[in-house]
Model the fold of this input.
Amino acid sequence: MSKLTLEEVAKLAGVSRATVSRVVNKPERVSPKYRERVLKVIEETGYQPNQAARMLVSRRSNILGLIIPSRADLIFTDPYFAALITGISRACNMHDYTLALFVFHSQEEQDQVYQRALGTGLLDGLIVTADKITDPLIPQIIARKIPAVYVGRPLDKAYTSFVDVDNVAGAYMAVSHLLRLGYQRVATITGPMSSTTSMDRYEGYTKALAERDRSIEDNLVVYGDFTRDGGYTAMRQLLPHHPDAVFVATDTMALGAIQAIHEANLTIPDDIAIVGFDDLSPATIADPPLTTIRQPVNQNGMLAVETLIDLLETGPVPPRHTILPTQLIIRATCGAMKFNNGNYVP
Amino acid sequence: MSKLTLEEVAKLAGVSRATVSRVVNKPERVSPKYRERVLKVIEETGYQPNQAARMLVSRRSNILGLIIPSRADLIFTDPYFAALITGISRACNMHDYTLALFVFHSQEEQDQVYQRALGTGLLDGLIVTADKITDPLIPQIIARKIPAVYVGRPLDKAYTSFVDVDNVAGAYMAVSHLLRLGYQRVATITGPMSSTTSMDRYEGYTKALAERDRSIEDNLVVYGDFTRDGGYTAMRQLLPHHPDAVFVATDTMALGAIQAIHEANLTIPDDIAIVGFDDLSPATIADPPLTTIRQPVNQNGMLAVETLIDLLETGPVPPRHTILPTQLIIRATCGAMKFNNGNYVP
DNA sequence: ACCTTTTTTGAGAGCGCTCTATACACATAT
DNA sequence: ATATGTGTATAGAGCGCTCTCAAAAAAGGT
Done:
């Protein structure tokens, strides 16, 4: 059996190459008679067009790249990325795009990986998690005019499209909830301040306090690093300053904080109340179950892909920004339940 | 600035297209004089060859596909896959291959995803997690003669290359350890028996018992599903039959089992001892810390990639099988520590 | 100095596809 | 009967690269 090409199929169907191409790409533009005949041959031979040839002329690969500029070992253990990748891959499947994954495991790998992702013209577009605001990646993407959508707000709004959740509002909601419940010394464990996500959540914290004329006490603000261990360490720093409630910027860190609180023989929420952020698996596994801010991570991922595909198909357009809402999920760690027979009415 | 092609670079360097191509691909076959000149132009212009054109003629894409035939939501929350993907992506980076990810979220998506992965000729080769032994994927891959390496032993050894850990030996080690410590009623929570991994671990369990002339008690064998909840449910089924030790086929399930034991107001290891399998994050997070079998997941992933690349470069060769060893990691749940002032000497 | 061998360069074909421009039916209008 | 239009098929160019093969240049031998 000779190599199965368009040419071959055309010969077998007794039509020209172009006709077969049309049957494959825009079947409605071929008369039913020929279309049937060609489809039959395709069916029989199991013909599938060569991607490379197709890419070469059409300049489209139907491959999207996902770049996650964080250390790979952190990425895959973090339930946030798990949910995000799930959403992204799902949307890719839905739209018949293939997903290529770009992560690096060391600083040295970074350049080489970026090169591969940006340089080869292999990818139609890029989804980038806008993790570190100083990452050299974003300027490169802009300079090369590669279609990209960021997950999370990058600093540069003018030249970038992104999808994000309303972190400020979410954090504000969390802290307001604690204040409303009467807590006096509301602390926060933030993420690394090199990410806009952390910045925004911190802003929500300050906003909620400011709105009630509370001042920010420096001792009650500790910087974490998004990991469980980081949350643990941060909480231990916080304990000597006797917070009666803590807004922890991620559920994963909250898990560490809870451990630190338990080890100090304090109870949650009676001695210290906790509100987290994310509402992913750690929130329900936590003991007691975590009051938290739910963010639609999965949906965010899907939306990023859909935005990107839209950008791809409609050509250069002004950057598009989508902000999804968050939601307060009340469980046991904020203490709201105990005020009202286990039913909290805001 | 006109389109940056080989042609263009050749013109700027005052050489032929072929020479530039040679500089890019096999620089040692070009005289230093020309090589320098061409490299300089490449440097200045930032030229990068078009992947599509390259693929078309060389029939190589430098893209590997990773197919994980499990529900996507399970994959990304499972620390096993986290470690595996980390290893795989790392090896891909090292060898300058791009990784494309193929997962599906529903049964309907499956076919379409397989089609995309197998049909388009886009991929040089495939890494497949040999999860479900009945998956239609493997026969398809064999039929199409697509270079592939499986992670985990597939049923068909004759036509497949794979890397795996020695699950039989690992499980045997775990159960022997428990028996040596004197436990009388050693139960097991297995994985789903549709996977060779689960089959092998169960075989190790039976082998250890048989070797000591213990019979397998049906009540002490419960089938789990690799999830934490599954482990919890399985343990609750087991409790009425009073096991004094349990070999749980994965750490994640062990987490659920531990929860069930605690809820029954039993203590670990005094009332029931536990040995897990994997030694990934759940093992150290567990309370008490989990005695388990360490398997080199990360390394396994890297090895899979390296085997595949080797296959790709050396052409059709007989299938290659690699089995990595496992290791017993003694922590608190097996009770070994308490026999000897916290120091276990086997 | 000339011929042979070896190394290096260049010309040209062609990978499999898409797409534009052109040719060709066939139906309808003149 | 010829002109006009409409839909549909084909011819042919070309996407950017690699690779073979022949030509040219350099090196070595007598």
In short: The radius of gyration of chain B is 26 Å. Chain B has 14 helices and twelve strands. Residues 167-295+329-340 of chain B form a domain with the Rossmann fold fold (CATH 3.40.50.2300). Residues 125 and 146 of chain B are 6 Å apart (CA to CA).
